[in-house]
Design brief:
ProRS_core_arch_euk; EC 6.1.1.15; ligase; alpha+beta; ATP binding; 15 helices; aa-tRNA-synt_IIb
């Protein structure tokens, strides 16, 4: 609390927390507000999402995080079926000849490419690259499979890992040298079809963030300078972390135009028998999504997970009794409660461990972010009820057993929506509209997400990055939102003083 008061039982609670920290390590040593970086590292490791590995930038993604990833996969795969996108898997390795065929693309990714140069005790005659992305692996296959207009549209999606070795300061989930993602690649007969799909996929990414991860995002178009190397244009969803004042590129949907069709001879015969080149898209989201969710929702107790993606939505904890008969009834009631919830489609588990006290279990599952905790003790048996505690706001309510399923499902829906609403209010409070350079610099110093009128000139964009370069990085364009505010006549670019062409979000980013 801001005034330092802990409420009724403050002394007992403080002593209990001190004891838990000393004996069990349950309490976090770092505060989200005071030391965000250390807090984040502590949260993702103590909650068993991430395990550190002996190669810098590479992490073990443990079951608590993989459970979240699985929920996102289920949602996305169902949407892929609706769009008739076929599942596939392509090799991890790419030959140097194919990689070098794509000059513009490699200029963008060259510093990040990892190479295999030895096999056993022998040097390879020709080094083999590990994919930083898969265009150069997938498009020779497209060239072989696409012959006529009846082969189009041609759509593939793979779940894979990629390796990017450029950076020196990795962050679990947010910037790692190996990460998981879905990677979609499609080809169409016309640009109109490609343009339509770009926005359809971007809307799926918005749904993933806002409706599953409860994280508000901005949909928009990247600048020419920030677009995907070799592509025609790039769209993205952008998230924002209020505690750090940094944006995160949440997912991207690219229209590649016909550049890759030219490079890899992806041609087809149209309905009139004439040769034509396809129009292509690529799109992806990665395990970065999990890191964004942790950063946005986590608190000083640990994770706060949205019900839609949490591996466990409800944890049932028994409050033991000294009476053996009553104790057995409580345990049986906990097991029955879990079965009832699971049979209704709720992901529920019981923590019936005898070697931990209820208070320890409460803190344990709070740290792991389980959306709803149900406590069952002797009083609850007597009153034919359970006690439910929300993770997002700590609210506690007694639920009659006869209303269990409907009430729990309603509470999970409420938690999901409330988490989004709270996150959006915090994000919106950080948005600052600036119209002059001085206002821009002041807002940047205050860690704001800046919306400013811009002339849309690359040289001006480069100049902004140069002028704002510091220990915490440079400010850059994030995206120009599709939902453009009104641009009054005579509005000038905040950086150049030239006539402004669009409103664009700026800020520092991960």
């Amino acid at each position: 609390m801001a005034d330092g008061k802990l409420g009724d039982n403050s002394t007992a609670i403080a002593k209990s927390k001190k004891g838990m920290k000393k004996e069990t390590g349950l309490c976090l040593a770092n505060s989200k507000h005071a030391n965000f970086g250390e807090w984040y590292s502590e949260v993702v490791t103590k909650t068993e999402m991430i395990g550190y590995y002996d190669i810098s930038g590479c992490y073990i993604i443990d079951e608590w995080a993989m459970g979240i990833w699985k929920r996102m996969q289920i949602f996305f795969d169902l949407e892929m079926e609706k769009m008739d996108v076929k599942p596939c898997y392509f090799p991890l390795f790419v030959s140097n000849d194919v990689l070098q065929k794509e000059k513009d693309h490699i200029k963008g990714f060259a510093p990040e490419v990892a190479w295999v140069t030895r096999a056993g005790d022998s040097d390879l005659e020709v080094p083999i690259a590990i994919r930083p992305t898969s265009e150069t692996i997938i498009y020779p296959f497209f060239s072989k499979r696409i012959r006529g207009h009846r082969d189009l549209p041609f759509k593939r999606n793979q779940w894979a890992n990629v390796v990017r070795w450029e950076f020196s300061n990795p962050t679990p989930f947010i910037r790692s040298r190996e990460f998981l993602w879905q990677e979609g690649h499609t080809a169409f007969a016309t640009k109109k079809e490609a343009d339509t799909e770009v926005l359809e996929i971007l809307e799926l990414y918005r749904q993933l963030y806002e409706e599953y991860l409860a994280v508000p995002v901005i949909k928009g178009k990247k600048s020419e300078m920030e677009k995907f190397a070799g592509g025609l244009y790039t769209t993205s969803v952008e998230a924002f972390i209020p505690n750090t004042g940094r944006a995160v590129q949440g997912a991207t949907s690219h229209c590649l135009g016909q550049n890759f069709a030219k490079m890899f001879d992806i041609n087809f015969q149209d309905e009139k028998g004439k040769n034509a080149m396809v129009w292509q898209n690529s799109w992806a989201y990665s395990t970065r999504t999990i890191g964004v969710m942790v950063m946005v929702h986590g608190d000083d107790k640990g994770l706060v997970l949205p019900p839609k993606v949490s591996k466990v939505q409800v944890i049932v904890v028994h409050v033991p009794s000294d009476d053996a008969v009553t104790k057995e009834k409580i345990i049986n009631t906990c097991s029955a409660t879990v079965k009832t919830l699971c049979d209704s489609g709720v992901r529920a588990e019981a923590d019936l461990r005898e070697n931990y006290r209820p208070g320890w279990k409460y803190s344990h599952w709070e740290m792991k972010g389980v959306p709803l905790r149900i406590e069952i003790g002797q009083r609850d048996l007597t009153n034919k009820q359970v006690c439910a505690v929300r993770r997002d706001n700590g609210a506690k309510v007694d639920i009659p057993m006869v209303d269990l399923v409907d009430t729990v499902k309603g509470m999970l829906d409420t938690i999901q929506q409330n988490m989004f609403d709270v996150a959006k209010r915090k994000r919106d409070a950080c948005i600052q509209v600036t119209k002059t350079w001085d206002e821009f610099i002041e807002a940047l110093a205050q860690k704001k997400l800046i919306l400013a009128p811009w002339c849309d000139e690359e040289e001006v964009e480069k100049e902004v990055k140069t002028k704002t370069k510091g220990e915490t990085g440079s400010a850059k364009t994030l995206c120009s939102p599709f939902d453009q505010p009104e641009m009054p006549q005579g509005t000038l670019c905040f950086a150049s003083g030239k006539p402004a062409k669009k409103w664009t979000y700026w800020g520092r980013s991960y």
